[in-house]
Design brief:
The chain is α+β, with helices and mostly antiparallel strands. The protein has a single domain, classed as SH3 type barrels (Roll), CATH 2.30.30. A hairpin with a 4-residue loop joins strand 3 and strand 4. About 17% of the residues have low confidence.
Length: 118
């Protein structure tokens, strides 16, 4: 009886994992939640940091974090204007490898981190 729900969950996770590869085939719309993966350096990584590596002499750490933004504008020349929760505007190319559409699981788990649609 437990095998059926586990099979459904595993199929759902496989679909979610492969769905971001089709991100650029679909059009981005204003208000769509996006995730931007950024590389940061500091003496103390944040709680959201992953893939943490110390510097050569151990003074700093290099790590990756996810930024949760919402699309504010899609320009016809290929640029996207994303808005952060602090109302900062970020100008990104549509083909930026660090930019991807938020998956369903990210929208459910980190929904409070995305700014509200304007």
């Amino acid at each position: 009886m437990l095998a059926a729900p586990l099979a459904v969950i595993s199929v759902f996770l496989i679909i979610e994992r492969t769905s971001h590869h089709r991100f650029f085939s679909r059009k981005l719309r204003v208000g769509a939640p996006v995730v931007y993966q950024s590389t940061e350096t500091s003496t103390c990584p944040s709680r959201d940091a992953y893939d943490v590596h110390p510097a050569e002499h151990g003074d700093y750490y290099y790590y990756l974090t996810n930024k949760y933004w919402r699309v504010a504008e899609v320009r016809p020349d290929g640029w996207i204007v994303a808005r952060s929760a602090l109302m900062e505007h970020h100008y990104l190319r549509r083909d930026d490898p660090n930019l991807r559409k938020a998956s369903l699981l990210e929208r459910l788990r980190y929904g409070g981190r995305f700014p509200y649609p304007a």
